[in-house]
Amino acid sequence: MNCHITATGFARFGRRPEPLVELAAEAAGEALAGLGRKPVDFLVVGNMLSGAINGTENLVSRVANQVGLETAAGLRVEAASASGAAAFHAAVQAVEGGGFERVLVVAVEKMTDRPTAEVSSALAHSLHPSEQVVGATMPALAALVTQRYTQRYPTDPEVFDQVSVAARAASTRNPAAQFRAAVTGPEVRASRVVADPLHLLHCSAISDGAVAVVVERGEGPARVAGLGQAFEALALVDRSDLTTFGATRSAAERAFSSSGGSRKDVGVVEVHDAFSPFLLIDLEDLGFDAPGTASRRYSGDSVPDSLSVNPSGGILGRGHPVGASGLAGIAEVARQLRGEAGTTQLDPRPQFGLAHSIGGLASHNFVTLLGRAVG
């Protein structure tokens, strides 16, 4: 692919007083600041819930007006909690198609000013109607997946606690993260049960925030190396195996196939850990660990690679403004490759990175590979 990420921007995740469009503009402004007079000719906005909980439609026009891009073309993209990743993929395709030179991608969500029950109901609209009608929620279905996973692969519950501990430890170093304080394993275990076996600190938090990246034609230190996306049955009951997300496996194979790279080239991953057990499933589905073995990374066992997992804190540590999270992972990987990750920067700087995003309850998943030239 002949395009790369030239700039990134974040509007800090957490409880923010600013309205939706102002958050988008904050992230966009940071990304655009380094471009000088280079014109942006296309705008892609990723968002899940602006109409459902913010009463805001025509979002791409509002963002264009706020950041002064009225002369550009644009579109809005929605793919549930993978909306940010989907927006990025749409931007890359716009550049690769030859019609645009430079695209601003913005992903944003505003959630904390609404009651939790209202947000949970809105999120559940991405589930199958048969699941909605019985009152299923994301945590409830995630708990079912976790129960099936631990039945098939007996896992010490403390492993899930340590996943959350690691996420919060990483997010203490990330100035854009919602959570800046570490937690201990006993604190995770003592948090209230949300849906057995998931406790509160095994689950991502409702959040506000925005992310922006600029995608430009040509080569650069965070070039787009491969893209993949795939679907799986919307209803859990229609899936043959709940211990794996088939859409992730297919998306990963497509991304690696289009990149010409391999898993051993990857030095950093940002994966969709909306629930602690999902991080283990993600690493296995992406091919970095064999089925049932990712727990060793969090149980003190020896791991035969130097892969850095979610150095930003991931969704558990950074927060989960759903429409923005998919682009956040991509931006974090780009910053690592460009040497711009600041207090979370890895040493040595990775040559190749992967960002993974889940839409809905893993019914529409995305994998993005970024690489940089050696030397």
**Helix/strand/pairing class, anyone?**
alpha/beta
How many helical elements?
13
CATH fold descriptor of the domain at 3-114 and 207-216: Peroxisomal Thiolase, Chain A, domain 1
- Spell out the helices and strands N to C: EHEHHEHEHHHHHEEEEHEHEHHEE
Strand order of the biggest β-sheet: 1-7-4-2-3
Architecture of the domain at 3-114 and 207-216 in CATH? Answer: 3-Layer(aba) Sandwich
Kindly describe this structure.
The protein contains 13 helices and 12 strands. Helix content is 36%, strand content 20%. The protein has a domain at 3-114 and 207-216: Peroxisomal Thiolase, Chain A, domain 1 (3-Layer(aba) Sandwich). It is of the alpha/beta class. α1 (20-33) crosses α3. The strands form 3 sheets. It has a 5-stranded mixed beta sheet with strand order 1-7-4-2-3, with helices on both faces. It has a 5-stranded mixed beta sheet with strand order 8-12-11-9-10. A two-stranded antiparallel ribbon has the order 5-6. It is globular.
